[in-house]
Predict the structure.
Amino acid sequence: MKVTDLIKNSGEPFTSIEIIPPKKGFKIKALFAELEALMKYKPAFMSVTSHAHARSIELVGGKEVERIKSKRLDTNAICIAAQSRFGVEPTPHVICRGFTKDETEDVLLTLHFHGIKNVLALRGDAAPATSGTSFANEYASELVEQIQRMNQGIYLDPIDDAEKTDFCVGVAGYPEKHFEAPDFETDLKWLKHKVDCGADFIITQMFFDNSAFYKFRDEAAKIGIRVPIIPGIKPLYKKEHLESLPRIFYTNIPESVKESISRFNDPEDIYKAGIESTIAQCKDLLANGVPGIHFYSMGIAKPTSDVLNGLALANHHV
Ligand code: FAD
């Protein structure tokens, strides 16, 4: 089912989950065990991140040769396996950078063939391998347009009476602005542009200060963004998170949250304080009318499960 229909049909706030494909060589049994633990909470959908291939130059027979390899298990394979194994609605991430429009078209057709209804369209952060050519999408908005064209049966090359895909398209939003944007208003203007290009819902970058999210939601509404905005929440459970998450994701962790966790030294106490802080954050969001909460689980079930147990959201949604 499309995420937008799941939201419409859901009488209560829903839970959704994001996972990251494990690195190559990771035991598939272990991945399924984590997913099984998360599926107990009946997520409305499960999104799976996507990553550009790594490129390196290697010497082969004395010649320099470019080697292109993937470091992680395939996003779409995980989505398809999880769909058939657990019946969960998969939402693969599709990224611009590192892929040509033709490669993207092929991926979208494969997903459509497998009955996948939702995709999250993103630019990605890797260096653009095909930048400067007309064969790659530069911004997520162009990818959204490509997907919406395929939804009308318009492919890169003209095909008479072509199969129409039927994707519901999500995009990323940044309550604390995207790190490259000159200011909050400019970033919001580009978010509106993504919606105008056909985005059906927005999932936010992780944040820890709910007031930033409420301001973002209000300002988005003021400029005419009417699609559902789903907050993305990362459970805190390690002291390192207090330093690493703001650095990697350009987000602010309020002093009160930092203090509630950093006063402990024992990893179990830190874990407990972090999860309690995440539960409090989610309770406040739910009290303020969010349609659901998207958890950045990273494919590790326990912290997200502990937050959901604390919220008693299990089995209460969709
Ligand atoms: P865009 O919407 O294209 O925006 C990128 C920047 O350009 C912004 O600063 C924006 O203000 C600006 N901009 C947008 N359009 C224009 C325009 N037409 N002209 C000028 N400026 C413009 N990364 C991955 O590699 N894989 C993933 O699976 C992945 N999943 C994610 C999931 C979520 C929910 C989020 C929030 C992020 C995810 N990311 C992922 C990270 C994301 O790819 C990066 O944050 C990336 O830098 C921006 O992606 P975007 O889709 O928001 O880009």
Observations:
- DSSP finds eleven helices and ten strands in the chain.
- The longest strand covers residues 54-60.
- The first helix runs from residue 3 to 9.
